[in-house]
């Protein structure tokens, strides 16, 4: 379980990245959803003991991430957004180096690495230089690292940013096979809906909403989104939310009708953005 209590981070330039954030993440796959700059990466860096908070507390399975950082590091694995493989090193070499750095013996590291690479579908290319792999395969190397560590909790920061749709699906399928609890940050709505059991929406370092996808969508149950008509404005576009019967009356009226998604939760919270 992950808990934060009034967690705050203010950088030297006075930017408030986290603003008294209090949240509990206890699902199999928890998602931190928000716009770019919402505080997602800052939160995961603090939780994974890579960054000190300005004030407040954070706990991983009851361990304080500041005063008990060494103990925390033994039970977590963190794959940062900016992680990129070393081109000439193979997937197997990446995993063995990672596991020996975590304290495993060479023989156990080799066995764990091969098992993890087989699990993510990289076994046949485990000796191939990573710069010859696709974008999706490169990201799966890091997911394999997390799997091989057998950590209690894995942090995945924006794991599919910059990937093409097929590569993104490859990474999604791999994440779904992981046995560890996962904390995933993303700004992709479909990724959050596809992978996450519980979602914490944050903006400007504050918690805006928390719940399962179904719970977050409950206020919009039975409705659809109408683009081109309404009082809600997103840029130059007018929006409204109507029930399905009303939507039928609007067919062929020059509007676009779309099903409800987490994007609409963000819109109604005033957090709409375009990728």
TrEMBL record:
Q: Which domain of life is it from?
A: Archaea
> Annotated Gene Ontology MF terms?
ATP binding; ATP hydrolysis activity
Under CDD domains, the record lists: ABC_subfamily_A
A Pfam family found in this protein is: ABC_tran
Q: Which UniProt keywords apply?
A: ATP-binding, Nucleotide-binding
**ABC transporter domain mapped to chain residues:** 2-229
Q: Does the keyword S-adenosyl-L-methionine apply?
A: no
Q: What is this protein's name?
A: Multidrug ABC transporter ATP-binding protein
Q: Which organism is it from?
A: Acidianus manzaensis
